[in-house]
């Protein structure tokens, strides 16, 4: 094992245990600079077998369960985007697991303190670390796991790309969904017809004659459908750019998955202390992801764990809440799914989070919200630092305008009045007008 203060030189390798590992792609936190997104490619003879061998923010888990993307955390002055890799579950055909990163909104030369770190997921000990030197690169192969004589090793690679995640993905055989651009149609070309159909010879009728019976067409096997290209695009909402059109992103059908993850602080109870800071007295932090909905026929309601109002995906309200999670992990976390195949039934949906127990405020809680449409770009945003004793936070407002489906970042912390529930507080703030009764879960 390597010590915490030892880093690997470029090109070097080290044995790693065939066990569960956590790969952290990290940087120093601070204002400005690009976001850094980790990804993994599972390779055979230097290429992926299919687009399913690419694990990243829009495709967060491999079908084998060997690799999954666990998302971003900020703590202790560091921002890390993490991959979980279980080498014991990597399929025998896979020779290498490439560990890459891309810079969203700049180059890696603008990323302070870039590193990749491999940690034993069970013991928490550092296995390997590599600090690459970067300038104008927008994507990096930082390292890789590879098989050697029946064992696994980690190599510090440090190969940069100037063509971003798209160029890196294509280099390993990924089919990328490129943006479509409207092109002018040539003046004498019919849209949607093959070129040979435009020639005078092909357009002329055949000479008259007795009909000739045609032989039955041969039995053919239809070609396999082309795989859906991988979407690399994502949208990060900020205070300056707080909204996005799902319609323009192509994300208006299928399942829209809303995930809330957070940095769980086991010794955190919320607001208190001499200067209004967090007090470390309670162990279990339980956040609940919820949604207020208003349907196009005027019906209103709530989807939440409280009162076992988990909703339904295939009948009104077409919103379903998964089980109740306390870990805050991206792979699980709190998840809510919206059936966009019934988007005409929605007028508006307000996604919010409440503290059920374990804290009296969101202070010092680092949380990220991700909306992942089945057929569009992922939409994510981070919650701002909470500076008030809030127990309920409005996360995102989804509005159906008739012509468009809009997502608005709210990130709005509310403070309930004495004796008023968090649900009633957010109802009043957004004018839902519902009647509330006490409930439990």
TrEMBL record:
Alphabetical list of Pfam families matching this protein: TerD (PF02342)
CDD domains, per database record: TerD_like
Membrane-traversing stretches: none
Feature: compositional bias, Pro residues: 203-226
Annotated stretches, region: Disordered: 179-231
Residue span, TerD domain: 6-172
Similarity comment: family membership: Belongs to the CAPAB/TerDEXZ family.
Protein name: Tellurium resistance protein
Species of origin: Streptomyces avermitilis (strain ATCC 31267 / DSM 46492 / JCM 5070 / NBRC 14893 / NCIMB 12804 / NRRL 8165 / MA-4680)
Taxon lineage: Bacteria, Bacillati, Actinomycetota, Actinomycetes, Kitasatosporales
């Amino acid at each position: 094992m390597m010590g915490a203060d030892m880093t690997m030189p470029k090109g070097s390798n080290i044995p790693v245990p065939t066990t569960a590992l956590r790969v952290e792609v990290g940087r120093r936190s601070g204002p400005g600079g690009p976001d850094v997104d980790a990804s993994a490619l599972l390779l055979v003879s230097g290429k992926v077998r299919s687009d399913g061998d690419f694990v990243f923010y829009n495709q967060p888990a491999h079908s084998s369960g060997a690799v999954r993307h666990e998302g971003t955390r900020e703590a202790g002055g560091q921002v890390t985007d993490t991959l979980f890799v279980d080498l014991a579950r990597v399929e025998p055909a896979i020779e290498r697991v490439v560990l890459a990163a891309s810079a969203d909104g700049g180059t890696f030369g603008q990323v302070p303190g870039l590193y990749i770190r491999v940690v034993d997921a069970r013991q928490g000990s550092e296995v390997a670390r590599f600090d690459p030197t970067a300038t104008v690169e927008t994507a990096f192969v930082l390292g890789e796991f590879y098989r050697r004589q029946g064992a696994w090793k980690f190599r510090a690679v440090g190969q940069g790309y100037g063509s971003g995640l798209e160029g890196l993905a294509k280099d390993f055989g990924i089919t990328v969904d490129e943006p479509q651009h409207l092109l002018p149609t040539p003046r004498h070309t019919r849209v949607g017809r093959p070129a040979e159909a435009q020639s005078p010879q092909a357009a002329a009728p055949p000479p008259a004659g007795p009909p000739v019976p045609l032989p039955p067409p041969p039995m053919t096997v239809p070609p396999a459908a082309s795989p859906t290209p991988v979407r690399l695009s994502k949208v990060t909402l900020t205070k300056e750019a707080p909204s996005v059109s799902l319609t323009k992103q192509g994300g208006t059908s299928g399942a829209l998955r809303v995930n809330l993850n957070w940095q769980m602080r086991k010794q955190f109870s919320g607001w208190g202390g001499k200067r209004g800071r967090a007090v470390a007295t309670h162990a279990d932090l339980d956040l609940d992801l919820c949604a207020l909905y208003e349907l196009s026929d005027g019906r209103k309601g709530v989807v939440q764990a409280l009162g076992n109002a988990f909703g339904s995906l295939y009948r009104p309200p077409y919103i379903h809440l998964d089980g109740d999670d306390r870990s805050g992990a991206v792979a699980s976390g709190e998840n809510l799914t919206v059936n966009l195949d019934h988007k005409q039934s929605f007028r508006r949906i307000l996604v919010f989070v409440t503290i059920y127990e374990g804290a009296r405020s969101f202070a010092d809680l680092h949380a990220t919200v991700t909306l992942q449409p089945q057929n569009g770009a992922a939409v994510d945003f981070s919650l701002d630092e909470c500076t008030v004793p809030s127990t309920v936070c409005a996360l995102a407002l989804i509005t159906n305008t008739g012509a468009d489906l809009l997502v608005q970042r709210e990130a709005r912390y509310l403070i309930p009045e004495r004796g008023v529930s968090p649900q009633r507080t957010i109802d009043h703030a957004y004018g839902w007008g519902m009647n509330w009764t006490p409930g439990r879960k």
